[in-house]
Amino acid sequence: MSRSRPAVALGVVVLVALAGCAGLSFTGPTGSTTSTGATAANGTTTAAPAAPTSASASGAYASLYDRTIDSVVMIRVVTPTEVATGSGFVYDDRGDIVTNHHVIANARSVEVRFANGTWENASVVGSDAYSDLAVVRVPDRPANATALPLASSAPRPGESVAAIGNPYGLTGSITTGVVSGVNRSMSTSDSFTIPGTVQTDAAINPGNSGGPLLTPNGTVVGVNRATEGDNVGFAISAAVVSHVVPNLLANGSYTHAYLGVSTTDVTPAIARANGLSNASGVAVVRTLAGGPSDGVLHGSTGYATVDGQRVPTGGDVIVAIDGTPVQTGEALSRSLLLHAHPNETVPTTVVRNGTRTTANVTLGTRPSPSAATGA
Fold it and tell me: What residues act catalytically?
């Protein structure tokens, strides 16, 4: 039996993107990088060797497996209703293991199985539903279960990668492929997305959730999370992991900056309906009443039909935030996640009624998933 979140369609108004959680692998109900470098959890940056040629790819993947499998774990979770398994990997020398939030959500107990077959009871150190990241800690681990380095820069499309984990409970499985794309969005809940994600054609199946997506050099470029049909998988980027996980270790949670708007990417139809010269930027559909942008940014005032499409009109179009150009909703979400903080006032450049202007928005704190809406 397996559980996975259903695919979420790309909406016209609310900023939502391709999704489909790889989920967990169930064992039954309760009772039954780039090639440029890598950064370890302690912050040390090391140069990575050149990636292998296609002629040596098979041997390179076998070598990768041998070098990293001891650092990849199975995570077994008991919830009030079932027993499930996922994956994770050793993050630091303290025994901290990174996985997905959805792997350990609602856990009554967590156990970790290492490649040598030993099991350890684990405690949840911290988790964040919005980035779908979590950290669990074990009191002891095999000496060869060492920390895997995180990529210090984004991978390039076409780079070779491998996913290692426990699909359907099959321990220590490896699948291979390439980076198909970067800076994708995955939806989580309540219309929010995880930005900056890595797309791959390496097979990611239920039970792979939380495992590493690795270059042949052994560098983690993402945490496997989602699948969207054949040959389309997604992993939370190393950049997001590097940003969120230290906060989970220090505070047990991560506080997200909140703009309080619902948005949609500007399409040619939206550009035509609003008299924009370029189909670029993020249209503000509405602002949350009483939210950070209420009275500062302007939502749409109506709708028009262009080429059979109903599109918003009259609202602000965000084209930059804090000086960084914004062409898509993914770029806006990525900037808020990686560079912004609650209570920070950020200059937000918008096109309003055909005129480029700057509005200063004091960011709020994103509410809990059950109460949240918008960006």
Answer: 102, 132, 209
